[in-house]
Amino acid sequence: MSHPDLESRAKALVDDKLIRAYWEAVEHYKTRDLVLLYAVGDSRHPVRAFVREELLASTLPADIKAQVADPASDASSRPASTDATFWLLAIFSDEEAVCLAVNAKLLAPGGRA
Description:
alpha+beta; 4 strands; globular
């Protein structure tokens, strides 16, 4: 599958629930510099959050480490001061994977972006 197709598949995963998971991880880890790993097909824990610097110290493959070597905010246009940008690493059930920067608007009361 071509890279643009993978990016489209990953972008389709971005919804209010994923953005909410990001902001919950921000509160937990006390940083906005995060990578969310979305394992499509994992029914127990499809989304996991990692501090980017800690993920770089892991046994992750070198090509993925290279993609998240810099903060996601460096890879996208400057978000509004209340927004943040994180890396989404999507791993699909066909074992294809893609990493892209996602802008996360601050959630309004009630949990909607």
